[in-house]
Amino acid sequence: MKKHSVQIRIMLAAAALFFGLPLLAQNPTATGVINARLTHKNGIALVFDTDPSGVTLGAAGTSAATLNFGTISAFGPLAPGVTRTSVTAANYTVRTVFDVQVIQGGLNSNTYTLSAQLASALPTGFSFKIDGVTLANGASNIQTNAAYNVDVPHNLDLTVSTAAPGAGGPAVGTPLSTVINFQASAN
Amino acid sequence: MKKLLVIFAAAVMMTSLAAAQTATGTLTVSATVNGTISLVFNSDAAGVALSSGAGTNAASLDFGTVSAFGTLPAGVSRPAPTATNFTVSTPVDVLVNKANTASTNYTLTTQLSSADAANTWAANGAAFTNTTAGTATATGTYGSNVPVTLAITIPFTTASGTTISNVVNFTASAN
To answer: Is B15 helix (H, G, I), strand (E, B) or coil?
Structure first.
């Protein structure tokens, strides 16, 4: 009986060696679970694009672009993309076109309202209109049902007094700048 | 009922959140203003009506058929002929406008585009040729029609039926 028991132990030990060694030879593994959570945030973005019939914007495709009418005058030549829409004894108006594109994601909104306002006081002798709407220091609605994800062209009119510098007219021969702030609000 | 109210409130909140979504952008606009003046021709009430281009800076003026002693078209004047030639004249209005300049008046000069060896041209009494400009006025007033009398002196030796044609270039310079 004792001899039989020893035999059984030897067999178990041999079995353990036979099956255990391959297991030890394998690479060790470990497992884990990550509970990932993604919060989808909706929103809209506004960028300016160059319109084919307007002047070429600086930093086009961004939300902080520049638009240069170049050298303007009541009677002289104008830069490409700039037209003179009227000349009177009191003032003249030059126009260019720029595009606004508003992109939205995750919103249940089909259109947006675009408003604009001057960031600061205008240079003497200047006034601006966008699509016929006079810009002021308070926000003015430019468009109330604009479509998302497409370039929407807007006319930018700059009306310049014909008065001489120092007599109500603008300074001449030097660049005059104005910042226009735009806001698109999802409808 | 309470659950319905909660759902309704949540829906209202989501709608208001969606409506509050905004995006902003800034467009910096710049321009450089130049002072300029412009010149256009208009028919003068006392002169020959411009045959084309009135209100522009490229007009045509036709004296019609002129002679030393015969009748003249309306608007054409003729002082007494000399022994060798006669002069016909007509006023034409020049309108010069200004913008963004402190200039108070302008000087107007005229010059022929091509030589005329036979005839003499003058504006407001100042002769001019294709090589020498004449000063029609040194103190032109902006913003109003200024009559300029254009005169051609024609020698008697000119063959009858001769057409006289030339281009007169007007230049207004801000003073």
So the answer is: helix
Q: Computed over its alpha carbons, how large is the radius of gyration of chain A?
A: 36
User: Quick check: B10 pLDDT over 70?
Assistant: no
CB contact under 8 A, A164 and B23: no
Residue in this structure with the two tokens 């051609």, named with its chain if needed: B152
Using pLDDT thresholds of 50, 70 and 90, give the confidence band for residue B13: very low
- Count Cβ atoms below 10 Å from residue B26 Cβ, excluding itself: 16
DSSP for A1-54, written as a single string: -HHHHHHHHHHHHHHHHHHHHHHHHSPP--------------EEEEEEEE-TTS
And the tokens for A110?
A: 């089909």
Q: How many Å apart are CA A119 and CA A186, to the nearest integer?
A: 22
- A89 near A161, Cβ under 8 Å? no
pLDDT at A18: 52
CA of B26 vs chain A CAs: smallest distance (Å): 5
Q: Quote the ipTM score.
A: 0.79
Exposure string of B138-170, with b = 16+ CB inside 10 Å and e = fewer, is: eebebeebbbbbbbbbbeeeeeeeeeeeeebeb
Give the pTM: 0.79
Residue B57 to chain A, least CA–CA distance (Å): 12
Tell me what pLDDT residue A106 has: 86
A4 DSSP β-pair partners: none
Distance CA A57, CA A63 (A): 11
Range picked from A39-48, B4-13, B92-101 for highest mean pLDDT: B92-101
Chain A residue whose CA is closest to B102: A164
